[in-house]
């Protein structure tokens, strides 16, 4: 295997024993990082803006909360876990003025460094610890004695010890229990954006919507269509995670497996791969980043319009009704705590 993978024995939590870690933001990733590091014995301070609704929640969970500027001032390691689109602003106004030589600036995604929205002053380590899972899973797995795999990368090694600091942080998160893969900011950023746009989020959402539309437009009941193209997706994906596409194909009926071979390439035809290459190219040359950031700067007009259009798709209404019937579906429709991609 080409990739370098680190485990518990490769990381020394002791490197953080005299350090304070500031977690900026308390959303999906923020709450998981703060709680896992705290439970690993590390001194944590959560940095939030004065009016933040998360203040109460973080304090109730026994964490120390300060303003972003105070947290950045006090800490040796500052992990920025606000949404990507506000990081540059928060950095410029509330973090950069408090960075001193020997500090480390950490990220869970390389977007702002890769596309040049943030540049750290000299003397400061810049590294990434990016869990490959939603924050709520990062917390749940840690509590269960396991961990979510993560990526580590070093952009600037000012201290000569940046990678070891990142590995120690990853250990505090529980990630070295599962395995931590070494990468670069460029590789992580571009591959993460590509994965979520082409396959995980963009590709899958569109595939499910087209499947639902095709069935309902042909007169099939929406409830049946929902089960066939959305609900069962999780069961299929679980098999893929356990044993690859091969295990998924082994587990399904021969009828389904044959249909997979003959119809998969008809639906996802070779031109889809050409489209994927165009998406990757827009990521690599900064076209996507620019479009996202310019829209955000203008109040997120395009973003809000696209979100409203997605929410108005008939599959959402059908799903809301049906999910009420699943007594085991405790998560309900509570996806208000943050993104997962
Ligand atoms: P989120 O939207 O869930 O939470 C953001 C937090 O930042 C909230 O607590 C919010 O109150 C706070 N915040 C927003 N604006 C702020 C400001 N101006 N000043 C201070 N705090 C502010 O974010 P997230 O999804 O956890 O993403 C954080 C980072 O982690 C991003 O870089 C993202 O790409 C990365 N990441 C996320 C996931 C995930 O599962 N969500 C996975 C891997 C990496
Ligand atoms: Mg990702
Ligand atoms: Mg079926
Ligand atoms: Mg089979
Ligand atoms: Mg969100
Ligand atoms: Mg992402």
Automatic annotation (TrEMBL):
Belongs to the ketol-acid reductoisomerase family. Substrate binds at residue 253. The keyword Glycosyltransferase does not apply. Pathway: Amino-acid biosynthesis; L-valine biosynthesis; L-valine from pyruvate: step 2/4; Amino-acid biosynthesis; L-isoleucine biosynthesis; L-isoleucine from 2-oxobutanoate: step 2/4. The active site is at 109. Its cofactor is Mg(2+). It comes from the Bacteria. NADP(+) binds at residues 26-29, 52, 54, 135. It comes from Rothia amarae. It is an enzyme of class 1 (oxidoreductase). Residues 3-183 form the KARI N-terminal Rossmann domain. GO terms for molecular function: isomerase activity; ketol-acid reductoisomerase activity; magnesium ion binding; NADP binding. This is Ketol-acid reductoisomerase (NADP(+)). Residues 184-329 form the KARI C-terminal knotted domain. Involved in the biosynthesis of branched-chain amino acids (BCAA). Catalyzes an alkyl-migration followed by a ketol-acid reduction of (S)-2-acetolactate (S2AL) to yield (R)-2,3-dihydroxy-isovalerate. In the isomerase reaction, S2AL is rearranged via a Mg-dependent methyl migration to produce 3-hydroxy-3-methyl-2-ketobutyrate (HMKB). In the reductase reaction, this 2-ketoacid undergoes a metal-dependent reduction by NADPH to yield (R)-2,3-dihydroxy-isovalerate.
């Amino acid at each position: 295997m080409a990739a370098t993978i680190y485990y518990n024995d490769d990381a020394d939590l002791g490197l953080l024993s005299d350090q304070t870690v500031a977690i900026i933001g308390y959303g999906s990733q923020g709450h998981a990082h703060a709680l896992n590091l705290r439970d690993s014995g590390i001194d944590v301070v959560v940095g939030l803006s004065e009016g933040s609704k998360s203040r109460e929640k973080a304090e109730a969970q026994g964490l120390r909360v300060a303003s972003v500027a105070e947290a950045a001032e006090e800490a040796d390691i500052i992990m920025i876990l606000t949404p990507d689109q506000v990081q540059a602003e928060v950095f410029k106004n509330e973090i950069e003025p408090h960075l001193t030589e020997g500090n480390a600036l950490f990220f869970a995604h390389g977007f702002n460094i890769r596309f040049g929205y943030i540049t750290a002053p000299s003397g400061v380590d810049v590294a990434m610890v990016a869990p490959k899972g939603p924050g709520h899973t990062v917390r749940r797995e840690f509590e269960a004695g396991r961990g979510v795999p993560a990526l580590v990368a070093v952009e600037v090694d000012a201290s000569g010890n940046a990678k070891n600091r990142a590995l120690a942080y990853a250990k505090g998160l529980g990630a070295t229990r599962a395995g931590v893969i070494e990468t670069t900011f460029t590789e992580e950023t571009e591959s993460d954006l590509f994965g979520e746009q082409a396959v995980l989020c963009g590709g899958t959402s569109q595939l499910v919507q087209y499947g639902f539309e095709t069935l309902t437009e042909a007169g099939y009941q929406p409830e049946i269509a929902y089960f066939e193209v959305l609900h069962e997706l999780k069961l299929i994906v679980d098999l893929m995670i356990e044993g690859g596409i091969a295990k998924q194909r082994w587990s399904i009926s021969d009828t389904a497996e044959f249909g997979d071979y003959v119809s998969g390439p008809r639906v996802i035809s070779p031109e889809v791969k050409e489209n994927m290459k165009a998406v990757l190219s827009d990521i690599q040359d900064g076209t996507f980043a620019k479009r996202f950031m310019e829209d955000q700067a203008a109040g997120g007009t395009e973003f809000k319009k696209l979100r409203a259009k997605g929410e108005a798709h008939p599959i959402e209404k059908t799903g809301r009704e049906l999910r009420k019937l699943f007594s085991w579906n405790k998560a309900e429709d509570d996806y208000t705590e943050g993104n997962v991609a």
